[in-house]
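User: Sequence for Phage tail collar domain-containing protein below. Tokens please.
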Amino acid sequence: MKNEEMNAAEASVTANIYNVPVGTIMPFMGNSTKMAGLAASGWLHCNGDQVNKDQYAALFDMIEYSCGGSGVNFNLPDLRGMFVRGVSAGSGRDTDAGSRRKQGTNDTVGDVPTSWQGDEFKSHHHSTKVWVNHNKVIRDDGSNITPANEERTVDSNDVGGSETRPKNVSAYYIIFAGLPR
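Assistant: Structure tokens for Phage tail collar domain-containing protein:
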């Protein structure tokens, strides 16, 4: 059996055993050297690389140019440093679903897989008012004034880091591309 056929048979059996559809994305906790070895089994790093659509025809049929590319090449999703979020699919849970963009562009594509959103912090406002009661103010000429109570606005200090995020653990994201041809 040729090496190519053996890899195809091996990956086909693996995919069938685990029933993994092409386009499935999973976290991978191995190191980068081990991850590079997964390509022979049909798993590719979600790092935005361009790959040949003929070589990875099954994956191209799933994601097409949604992450970039043109002609004979398409881009893999780039999930480095990103959280994956479920497609809202009309649930109303993603109130900004319509503003999602195609990866690497400013083109609005809406609530579809591989769409992207930048950092955002939910709009809010902190306003604190304090009342100052002046007991006595002395003028330059030495005479006293008893001013009325005065309202002043006090701003809070900036607190926090450089982003808003939940607790997290980092991993590589890999995508099942089917078998390379």
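The longest strand covers residues 128-132.
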